[in-house]
Amino acid sequence: MVYYNLNPNFYIGFGQGKLPGNRQRIISSGEQQFTDRSMVNSTFNIDRDFGLMAYYSNSIGEIAYNLKGAITGGEGRNARASDNGLAYTGRVEVLPFGRFTNSGDFSEGDQIHEPTPKLSVGGGYSFNHKAQRAGGQRGDFLNEQRDIETWYLDAVFKYRGWALYSEYMNRYTENPVTLPPFPLSTGPVHVYNGNGFLSQLSYHFMNDFEIGTRFTKVTPSEAISLYESPMKEYALGVTKYLHKHRVKLQSNLMYQQRESMNDRWVIHFQIELGI
Predict the structure, then answer these.
(1) 96 preceded by a cis bond (ω within 30 of 0)
(2) 3-class DSSP state of 222
(3) Of 11, 40, 272, whose CA–CA distance to 153 is shortest?
């Protein structure tokens, strides 16, 4: 990715990079407070793409805002070929109480212990014209191309060690199930039409321990009910930060529910050694 700064508030990039989609996908994996991103992100995020991206930041009084946009190929990372359909992505962020310390709106948890309340509300939309894959830029290859719409809305709040993060995502395309040409040499491939909701709350203690909780829900549309079923997950996380997010010990306990399947418990443990 090559960037060029036109002025202190506006810069552009050309190459392959993260699209300005949902916040949790934009946040680096090394800045997460759980051992992995949520299943809302894994189901609906638009990931990376190749093309032109633009970023503008400014403020009106104490209210800060960011505008982000991209026009990209729509095929996702490391694509070997492209068609004549492009992807168009836009995102807006509003920070009514001013900017977070050290860009804390893109780092999970409140290790800084923000002395005053900080809030960022973001949202956007992506339209992938003639998408070849089930998730637009990612997923299985479809039997037929589809126009895919993705909406996302998120918010992060931090104050004195408390951090609250919530996110909503929705994906839609007409006729989400694609069938192979006759004779049927392969099975149907579907776009995951539906929506997801995530909310996580945490508190960071002064001794660099953190306790976090997360609730996640993913709901498919009726059009793909033969292939997908609703899912819920409840998670409890404990983290010990040894050097902020760069070096940390993390453990998560999760309870997962999925219709027509047995519930299950999952335990994760992770040692992060970042650079």
Answers:
(1) no
(2) helix
(3) 40
Instruction: Give the pLDDT confidence of 198-211 residue by residue, as tens digits.
Output: 999 999 999 999 99
Burial of 216: CB neighbours in 10 Å, binned 0-12, 13-18, 19+ = buried
Give 36's DSSP letter: S
Between CA 80 and CA 87 the distance in angstroms is 16
For residue 55, how far is the Cα from the chain centroid?
18
Strand partners, 239: 210, 250
Tell me the one-letter amino acid at 264.
R
DSSP 112-142: T--SS-EEEEEEEEEEEEEEEETTBSSSSEE
107-119: pLDDT as tens digits: 999 999 999 999 9
193 in helix, strand or coil?
coil
In 3D space, the residue among 264, 232, 267 whose CA is nearest the CA of residue 253 turns out to be 267
Which positions ≥6 away from 256 have C-beta within 8 Å? 231, 232, 233, 263, 264, 265, 266
Tell me the C-alpha distance between 273 and 166, whole Å.
27
- Residue whose pair of structure tokens reads 């997908």 in the numeric block: 228
